[in-house]
Amino acid sequence: MSDRVMSDGEKWLRKSAEMGNVKAMHNLGWRLLDGAGLPHNEQEGEMWLKRAISLNYDPALSALGWRLLDGKGITQNIAEGERLLREATNKGNTYAMCSLAWAILKGTLPNNDLAEAERLLTRAAEGGNLDAMDSLGWRYLDASGFAYNQELGEHWLKKASDAGSAESMYQLGWRLVEGFTLPHNEPEGIMWLEKAANAGHTHAMSYLGNLLLDKEEFAQKQQNPSNLH
Predict the structure, then answer these.
(1) CATH (residue range 8-93)
(2) What is the mean pLDDT for each group of 10 consecutive residues in the chain (229 residues)?
(3) What is the pTM for the complete model shown?
């Protein structure tokens, strides 16, 4: 430790971790690795996450695993990152399932088993992970990593949307409006875009704004044929 002045937040987090609170160890660890509210410290951050792991705090497995895979805030170690993520996956951690699947899809892992990536994302989605639902939805529709499957793509986007994912609402919306990878259905598409926009999705706001202005302009020209050119 240096002589720098610690914030109140850091003092309380450190005190909790030092008293044995595994959630505090986890939070202290990833914050030190990411430099999130605390100065970056690879050695200490890894130490706190490993201590939480030794006390069977499964989220720390995922937190350290994906950072080792990506080399985020820590020296990259793909083999160890994969090992930790697989251990977390075996314990039912849906975030670890997603991290493993995305690493396969990105080609980070030597194992380029796309079928395994699909199984992992499906398992995570069935466990309620919104990121997995989002990913499955657009990947099935865009045939990105998996074969095109309209039924499954729409299913997962709608399931994620119903659970509050603004990104899936947006994906459903523009695809339905344009008839791209989904059957054209402008009224339903606008409905999903409005939901996404009301949820704060800026791309949905922009898309919806332009769409409605185009429709208003078209209606005005229809009412005043002399303005057509």
Answers:
(1) 1.25.40.10
(2) 77 97 98 96 97 96 96 96 97 97 94 94 98 98 97 98 97 98 97 98 98 87 67
(3) 0.87
